[in-house]
Amino acid sequence: MSTGKRAVLDKSNDPHIRKKTKSVPNVESKIIEDEKKTKTRGCTPPIADPSFIPEPNVDTVIYGSYEIKAWYYSPYPYDFGPRIDRLYICDQCLRYMNKETQLIKHKLECKMKRVPGRLLYAKDTIKVYEIDGQLQKSYCQNLCLMAKLFLDNKTLYFDTEGFKFYVLTEQNAKYKSKECMVGYFSKEKVSYDNYNLACIMTLPSHQRKGYGRLLIELSYELSKHEGKIGSPEKPLSPLGSLGYQSYWASTILATLIHFKGDVTIGEVCKETCIHEEDAIDTLYRLNLLRYRKVNTETSIQNICITEDMLRDAMDDFNIKLDRKLDLKNIKWK
C-alpha cells in the first residue's frame, strides 16, 4: 500500500558518510555564533512549556499623557536591564527609551507628525492607516514590541516585511492637528491559509470604546474587497476571542434575519466572508443547531432556524446588530 510519503534511507552508520561529514567545517554553527555576538536586542526565549508565560519585564509604559501598566513580557534591549520600571515611548514614531530626559530630547527632534502610511479610513476623531511592513520597518518593529506588552500569545517582532499593518489613531483632544496610535491589527500580505488577521491590539487606555470591534469589521471588509473568505490566525487572546465571538454572532444573525427561505452555510459564509468553521462554531454557541432533519434521498442534514429563535438568541446573548465601521468612509484608492 502506498502512503504517499517518500522513503528516506538512513545512512548514519555508513563510515564513508561519517568520515566525509568530519572533513567539512561547521560553517553554519560559526555563522550562528557570529549572529549571537552582533545582536543587541533581546528576544523571547524558547518556551518548552506553552502554558508558561514569562514575567513582565516592564512595569509602566509612559505614552503621551498616559501611564499604562504592562501585562506581558516584551523583548526590549538587554541593556535596559532585566526589569524596566518606566519605559518611555514616543507617541508619534513609537521609539522607546528608558529615561525621561531622552524622551524630552527626542520629542524636540522627532520629525514624524503622523503615522507613516496610506490613509484608509477616516471618521470624526479617528483614522486608520495602511502601512507596509517592508517600507516602514522601524515603525512597525517598534509597534510590535509595544503590542507584545499587552499580548500574551503571539506577535512578530522584527520580521515585518511580509505583513501589512492597519493602525488606528485618535485625534488629540487638545492639539487637533496631532494624532497618536491607539490600536492596530496586522495581516500577512500573502496568506496560504486565507488568514485575514495575524495580531490585533487596542491599548488598555483606549479599550471599551469600540476600537477593537471597528478593526475586526475592517479586516472583514478587506476580505470582501479581495473576494476571499477569511479567518483570524489562532489562537486568539482572551479579549480577542470575546471581540470575534461578538462580531461573528451579530453578523451571522443579521444575515440570517434578512434571508428568506432556505439558505446554506456556504451562502452565509460567501455573504459575510466568515470562514465556515467560525460560522458553525458561532451557531452552535448560540444554540441554533438544535432542530435538524435529514433528507432521506440526499442524506443532507437540514438545520431549522426560525425568526423567533434568532430573536431569542439576540435577547439571551445580548447581541447588538449595529456596526462601528462606516463603510462610506473607507478610502479604497
What is the compact description of this entry?
The chain is 32% helix and 20% strand. It is α+β, with helices and mostly antiparallel strands.
Describe the structure.
- The protein is α+β, with helices and mostly antiparallel strands and 333 residues long.
- Helix content is 32%, strand content 20%.
- It contains 9 helices and 13 strands.
- The protein has helices at residues 15-23, 27-38, 100-109, 137-148, 211-226, 238-258, 265-272, 276-285, 307-316; strands spanning 58-63, 66-69, 84-89, 96-97, 118-123, 126-132, 163-171, 179-188, 195-197, 199-202, 231-232, 292-294, 301-303.
- The chain has a 5-stranded antiparallel beta sheet with strand order 5-6-7-8-10, sandwiched between helices.
- The radius of gyration is 25 Å and the shape is elongated.
- Assign an overall shape: elongated
For the report, how would you describe the main beta sheet? 5 strands, antiparallel
Number of strands: 13
**Strands of the biggest beta sheet: in what spatial order?**
5-6-7-8-10
**Category by helix and strand content:** alpha+beta
Rounded to the nearest angstrom, the radius of gyration is 25 Å
Q: Please report the number of helical segments.
A: 9
Strand content: 15-25%
Task: Provide key terms for this protein.
333 residues, alpha+beta, 4-stranded mixed sheet, 9 helices, 32% helix, disordered N terminus
Summarize the SSE layout with pairings:
Blueprint: H1 15-23, H2 27-38, E1 58-63, E2 66-69, E3 84-89, E4 96-97, H3 100-109, E5 118-123, E6 126-132, H4 137-148, E7 163-171, E8 179-188, E9 195-197, E10 199-202, H5 211-226, E11 231-232, H6 238-258, H7 265-272, H8 276-285, E12 292-294, E13 301-303, H9 307-316
Parallel strand pairs: 1-3, 9-11
Antiparallel strand pairs: 1-2, 3-4, 5-6, 6-7, 7-8, 8-10, 12-13
Helix pairs in contact: 5-6, 6-8
